[in-house]
Amino acid sequence: MEKEAHLLGWFRAQGSALIGFSGGVDSAYLACIALEAVGPARCLAVIGRSASYPAVQWEKARAVADRFGIPVHEVDTEELADPRYAANPTNRCYFCKSELWTRLVPIAQARGLAVVVDGTNADDRHDHRPGARAAAEQGVRSPLAELGLTKVEIRAASAARGIPTWDQPASPCLSSRLPYGTEVTPLRLRVVESAEAAVRALGVTGNLRVRYFGERARVELDAEALAHWSAEPARGALETAVRAAGFTEVELQGFRSGALNILAGVAGGAA
Predict the structure, then answer these.
(1) H helices within the chain, ranges in order?
(2) Domains, the chain, ranges and CATH?
(3) Which one of 21, 34, 124, 203 is least enclosed by Cβ atoms within 10 Å?
């Protein structure tokens, strides 16, 4: 792919890089390309860990790093300690990414790495992405977006390289399951994470969100999965699993990317 060749050249021109590494489709691909371009001594993938980062996503990130030999460093981030973030405004992601990049940029500087990059792709620039402003303020680059790589192209290139995340559903932070204005707390995030894990354990694949509305959970599934899990006995099993995580009411609905953004009257995104 011509764009991939340009991406390899981009990293080689930088000479070294630190990659913000969540283990999602985009950052996994970006880290693999950076590794090939500049070698393990001149690239570092950094995972920011907090209560809003799903444990299953961390496991996938570590698995990709181990498989391809990507050097990894982990840091704890404290966005939930910021009352501006915890209040869950529509620009919540700005405060999260500000916290992340103010921790990662100094690591790059201390290690002599030339550039800090994130996995923003060309499609993302059309979404509601307040975190992008935080990245720009810290001088973080987005080579996938700069070179015009779309999500479809990244998935195809990842599959060609054998990167296991190529068909992985999008997995934004757990805070995105809470409607704007609902305070983000570690307990609420744990309830959501437990509910999603329980639903996955039943065998649900594809897109999944457990949206938090107090005691009520709205479980969003892809259309085919929704048809199956809406009928008994599957529905009963799903509702039991979600209630065991801490909810008392369960409703099922079709998955829609950016559903809470739309509900709040802001542009759609990947939440």
Answers:
(1) 2-14, 25-38, 55-68, 83-86, 92-111, 131-137, 143-146, 151-161, 186-201, 223-229, 234-244, 259-264
(2) 2-167 (3.40.50.620), 174-264 (3.30.300)
(3) 203
- Which tens digit of pLDDT belongs to each residue from 58-85? 999 999 999 999 999 999 999 999 999 9
* pTM of the entire predicted model: 0.91
Q: Who contacts 55 (Cβ-Cβ below 8 Å, separation ≥6)?
A: 193
Phi, psi of 145 (to 5 degrees): -70, -40
Interval 133-165: pLDDT, tens: 999 999 999 999 999 999 999 999 999 999 999
What's the mean per-residue pLDDT of the chain? Answer: 94
Tokens 């910021």 sit on residue = 82
Phi-psi group of 16: left, alpha or beta (phi > 0 → left; psi -120 to 50 → alpha; rest → beta): beta
Angle, alpha carbons 172-139-267 (nearest 5°): 40
